[in-house]
Amino acid sequence: MRGLGAFALVALATASLTAQSGPPAPGRVEGAEALRVIPIRGNVFMITGAGGNIAASIGRDGTMLVDTGSTAMAETVLQTVRDLERRVMATGLPPRGCVGVSAGCTWWSSSNFLPSTVAPPAPRPIAAIVNTSASAEHIGGNAVIASAGRTFGVRNLLDRSQLGAWIVAHENVATRLSPKGVPSVPAAALPSEVYFGDEKKLNFFNGEAVVVTHIPRAHSDGDSVVHFRGSDVLAAGDFVNMAHYPVIDVERGGSIQGVVDGANKLLDITVVEHMMEGGTMIVPGHGRLIDTADLAYYRDMVTIMRDRVRELRRRGMSLEQIQRAGITRDYDPRFGRDATWTPARFIEAIFRTLPTGS
Ligand SMILES: [Zn+2]
Fold it and tell me: 168-209: per-residue pLDDT in tens?
């Protein structure tokens, strides 16, 4: 049933384009042809094409974004989110009392229990942004999009007009964005709320718990995974990468062991749907939406690559020799086609971040 609901939304999203320019590609949103919107489950969507992948929770509590794409795409992302907000509100939520996908409910939220007369007629503001790392293609839209939003909570008791949406990130993201205390991005793009330690629980939002978990030393030292626990969608950020081998940002504290550990940590959380694609859905930092089976395949790949590099290094081979040994050949058709993050660079990152003596 939820599949049908998702299809209906895509059809709605494309209907207005059809009138002007013929049938558009499924899932494209008017005015933002470069971006693609994929309804995942419940109130959670994936937006692709803006640099890094974006996850969005959109509903009666407002909008929460996980990452904001590149700076060049900021206005387009904002326009797409606004468009999506209007469509979500217009499409309507399920009848009151309709809770959970097992009951055939496409839209559900704690607000369903409120009398329908208090339903807000217009979309609520963008209330929060969570950044999965400090990488440019994930934080580039922060300033523009946060400024267009308005956060929940006490911060807005100070001055409702001036404060934009919360930007939440691990404290190492803030540190990396302000090397030696000097911000390398506009002040409005910096995290306004940082956490340290293992996790941060955000407010119950659009009818579900949202939990941010730190993944230590994986893509970087400030990686976060965002779990929409009701919809059961994980926004994983860059240590899960389905477009090419994961970028390990060695200068910013990334490591191959962190990538392997992070993938295993996610597998502890995910649940399969019996005999079909589904269950917990994962939004990777780049590439397509995946499920548990995809994640297990990915975990195997990064583990095998770690072990191959470690074994050849143990045998006394140099980095250059390992790079020429053809150890990525079986995975290259799937992960090795990026012109910038090449198999050789991936091998180098593994080589440099494996503990010495391992
Ligand atoms: Zn990225």
Answer: 999 999 999 998 889 999 989 999 999 999 999 998 899 999
Q: In what order do the strands lie in the sheet with 44-48?
A: 28-29, 32-41, 44-48, 54-59, 62-66, 126-130, 166-170, 193-195
Handedness of CA 225, 231, 232, 238 (dihedral sign): negative
Distance 285 CA to ligand 1 centre (A): 5
Cα 287 to ligand 1 centre (Å):
10
The residues spanned by each domain of the chain are 2-231
pLDDT tens-digit map of 24-35: 344 444 445 679
Distance CA 158, CA 222 (A): 29
Instruction: Report whether 176 contacts 153 (CB < 8 A).
Output: no
Distance (Å) from CA 236 to ligand 1 centroid? 10
Specify the CATH class of 2-231 in words. Answer: alpha beta
The Å distance, Cα 338 to ligand 1 centre, comes to 13
350 CA → ligand 1 middle, Å: 18
Cα(190) to centroid(ligand 1), Å:
17
Q: What is the pTM assigned to this prediction?
A: 0.83
Three-state SS letters, 97-108: CCCCHHHCCCCC
Q: 335 and 245 in contact (C-beta within 8 Å)? A: yes
